[in-house]
Prior knowledge:
The protein has helices at residues 11-14, 26-32, 60-69, 80-93, 104-115, 130-143, 156-162, 185-194, 208-211, 246-259, 265-276, 278-297, 316-322, 337-347, 379-384, 401-413; strands at 97-101, 121-126, 146-151, 167-173, 199-203, 221-225, 239-243, 302-306, 329-334, 352-353, 363-365, 391-395. With 422 residues, it is α/β, with parallel strands linked by helices. It folds into 3 domains: 1-43, no CATH class; 69-275, 3-Layer(aba) Sandwich (Aspartate Aminotransferase, domain 2); 278-413, Aspartate Aminotransferase, domain 1. Strand 5 (199-203), helix 9 and strand 6 (221-225) form a beta-alpha-beta unit. The strands form 2 sheets. The protein has a 7-stranded mixed sheet with strand order 1-7-6-5-4-2-3, with helices on both faces. It has a 5-stranded mixed sheet with strand order 8-9-12-11-10. The N and C termini lie far apart (71 Å). The radius of gyration is 25 Å and the shape is globular. It is built from 16 helices and 12 strands. The structure holds pyridoxal-5'-phosphate. The site of pyridoxal-5'-phosphate (PLP) has 13 residues, from helix 5.
Amino acid sequence: MANKRPPARSDLDKGLNGLHLNDVALDTRALRARFTYEGTATEPLVPPIYHSSTYKLKSVDDFLKVMQEGGSVYSRLANTTTESTECAINALEGGAGSLVFASGMAAVSTVFLALLDMGDHVVMNVPVYSGSQTLLKELVRKFGLEVTWVPAGCSIEEFRRSVKANTKMIYGESPCNPDMSVLDFEEFGKLGSSLDGVISVVDATFGSCYLQQPIKHGIDISLHSCTKYMGGHSDLIAGCVTTKTVDLWKRIKKWQTSLGCMLSPHDSSLLLRGLKTLPIRMKKHSENAMAVAKYLEGHPKVNRVMYPGLPSHPGHEVARKQMAAFGGMIMADVKGGVEGGRTVAESLRIVTLAVSLGGVESILEHPITMSHGPYLLTPAEIEENRVTPGQLRISIGIEDPEDLIADFKQALDKVDVSKGEN
Ligand SMILES: Cc1ncc(COP(=O)(O)O)c(C=O)c1O
């Protein structure tokens, strides 16, 4: 079969509007002779990466046609590779449409800028990802927004009590970073729908769009840092937003285009590749994390473990209702204070000391000295985020669970519990 196959021919080789390869010099050929997929009997299984920033128009009318009906004229506005990734995400989230962004924070900031006006009020849970908290505080300072913080894991009644006449957005993160509290999506969606003009937003990064789909519970916007599970291999920075309605999608898309914070075609392609294995990765992350969480919960040098799959987690029943499995993130509070947490973080041999989460390799960080430490947050914010000295934020990968447990055992053996408050 292979020897019947002719060499691929370029568009100029086939004749492009009467222009042929022999009509142009090598310098022109190097730029203009291209393999095109159109006209071949088969299409590539994997969408090609369309790096092109601009697109050829057959007539000036094409410009308006594409602007109104879809397609590409300029890649900040729309790009075929990027759109194919957005379609794949929306198919998992079950929304009206998705958008991919240059980072998770680009997704969060575009949602705020698109949907909030000066003087609007936001209700947000805390603990929450420190970048989102810092951004909202900056918007309060600069543009006169108002915010009420409610404790993550609180009842929906507490969210309702915080709503005021000028409330425009209720925002929750679940499971939240770093303490793993859970938000009841169904109740949160109902609250949002019952309040005229109030948009409900959930950052669902820790569960990924495979384990939880906020929009299916009536929530208006689901967003993620795709840098984490959705990319899954710690090799890209990306974010996404999915909306319940086309109107919300259009409002956010308009701001994304103005801010220019779309995801590049190359990273869109990496993200699309990651999504293909999201289901099997999330199952394995969840199985492994359950085994490690159980081990840590029974360890005498561990004060407390927060993992939604453990019956001891205060949000366990809610998590059972809304998550297909409990994910790969664990919060463990080690005895021995800051030194105890540091000792474990620095003694592990397989689990690597690194920020971020959601990749196939197990990693962990020590929030009090790293992501939620004094260089980023004030002492009051550290307390609000419930960061304790021995707290570890653990992202369990897809290695053999027995190896991970043995790794934690040898690291915990080194902790001196007589040091620091227990
Ligand atoms: C829950 C959550 N949301 C948003 C972000 C921001 O994502 P990115 O780093 O991709 O901008 C992070 C990053 O850690 C996160 O954990």
